[in-house]
Automatic annotation (TrEMBL):
Molecular function GO terms recorded: protein-cysteine S-palmitoyltransferase activity
Signal peptide: none
Organism lineage: Eukaryota, Sar, Alveolata, Ciliophora, Postciliodesmatophora
A Pfam entry, by short name: DHHC
The name this protein goes by in its record: Palmitoyltransferase
Domain commentary: The DHHC domain is required for palmitoyltransferase activity.
Amino acid sequence: MVQSSKIRFKRPSGFCTLGNCYILVINGDIYASLGPDWLFTIIIISFSLTMLITFIYIMAKEIELLFQYLGFFIYSILFMSYMIVSLKNPGIIISPWEIELEETENQEKIMCKKCNVEVEIGSFHCEDCEVCIRKHDHHCPIIGKCIGEGNIRWFYVFLTSTVLGISYLGLWIYLRSKMHIL
């Protein structure tokens, strides 16, 4: 009989807090997280949804079908990308759920002094979220949490769709003003 070199603990599941973040853990993996600025996240989600509904019921009626599809696509991507970036795990580093019995003398581990986890190069302890984030970029109060390895791509999609949404709104206002002048 071969013995395992690791002691395995039950992997937690459910909603819990880690630092100042609220997370959904399933079998030890983080599937969703809300940062400490969760109220602002709810406000932005409501605003984005309002923009999408406003577009569908007010703006789209006054423009050609091609522009309706373009606007619906832009505002849908804006809403969905914000939902994903605000709920996706930014790369929170958690304590391992397994303890190795074999000790290695040559490997030095760098530990965070505040949250007591093993950190990697490029990770950073966020003072707002009170957790360490892999490949930390910044803490974004608009998103409501940190931007890191897990959600940076969706953050860029959100920024791009926001610029496109504002440009589309400006184009709609310009075209609408031209229609009323003629």
